[in-house]
Amino acid sequence: MSGKILVAGAGHGGLCAAIHLAKSGLDVTVFEKSSREGMGYDWSDFVDVSTFSCVGLDDPPCERELFYATAFFGPGKDVKLVKNHSKGRPCVAMERKEILCHLLDEAEKSGAKLIFNAQVKNALTNGDRVVGIEVAQNGNEEKFYGDLVIDAAGVYSPVRRSLPEKFGIQRDFEDFEIYTGYRALFQRKSNYGSSPRYSIYFYHCNRKGMDWVITDNDYVDVLVGNFGELSQKDIDEAIDDFRKDYDCLSDKIVRGGTICKIPVRKALDKFVCSGYAAVGDSAAMTEPLCGSGMTISMRAGKMLADALAETSNISDFDKALEKYEKEYFARIGKSRLFDDASKNFLLSVGAEKFDKMIKRKILTEKDFGGGKYTFKETLRRVWGFVRTPSILPDAIRFLIDVKKAK
Ligand SMILES: Cc1cc2nc3c(=O)[nH]c(=O)nc-3n(C[C@H](O)[C@H](O)[C@H](O)COP(=O)(O)OP(=O)(O)OC[C@H]3O[C@@H](n4cnc5c(N)ncnc54)[C@H](O)[C@@H]3O)c2cc1C
Question: What dihedral angle (degrees, nearest 10) is formed by the CA atoms of 193, 199, 202, 205?
Answer without folding.
Answer: 10
